[in-house]
Amino acid sequence: MRPEEAVRQLEYTIDASIDEIGQRAAAGYRPTFERVAERADGSAVYDLAGELSQEVVDGSCPSPAEANAVAERVLDDWAYTDGGE
Questions:
Q1: How far does CA 16 lie from the centroid of its chain?
Q2: Which superkingdom is the protein from (predicted)?
Q3: What is the residue-wise DSSP string for 20-76?
Q4: Angle between helices 3-17 and 30-39 (to 10 degrees)
Q5: Integer CA distances (angstroms), 67 to 11, 44, 63, 84, in order
Q6: What is the pTM of this model?
Q7: CA distance 10 to 73
Q8: Does the structure show a pLDDT above 60 at 17?
Q9: Cβ-based neighbour number of residue 84 at 10 Å
Q10: For 32-81, how does the pLDDT look when each residue is reduced to its tens digit (9 = 90+)?
Q11: Cα angle: 58, vertex 61, 63; to 5 degrees
Q12: Residue 42's CB: how many other CB atoms inside 10 A?
């Protein structure tokens, strides 16, 4: 999954779950998705989008700092499972 696709999917989730303010917040995640894509691969971007989407479905709208923390966890998991050769 490419970063821009992940952001778009997250925007759709936020739009369905919160209000218009959430859509603007989702665009703020783009640098986080791009960083994950640079350091890992599309599956890590997909995992990040899934985790952030689940938080939104659960009623939260993670801040960019919270999204970065989730991204670090995803990257750590990725390094141990997929990319840590």
A1: 16
A2: Archaea
A3: HHHHHHHHTTHHHHHHHHHHS-HHHHHHHHHHHHHHHHTT----HHHHHHHHHHHHH
A4: 140
A5: 14, 13, 6, 22
A6: 0.73
A7: 18
A8: no
A9: 9
A10: 988 999 999 888 988 998 898 888 888 887 888 899 999 999 999 888 77
A11: 140
A12: 14
Residue 41 tokens, joined: 């691969």
Report residue 26 as tokens: 């989702």
Q: What are the structure tokens assigned to 50, written together?
A: 């899934």
* Distance (Å, whole) CA 64 – CA 26: 9
Q: pLDDT tens digits for 55-68?
A: 888 888 788 889 99
Structure tokens at 79: 């390094």
53 vs 10: CA distance, rounded Å: 6
More confident residue, 70 or 83: 70
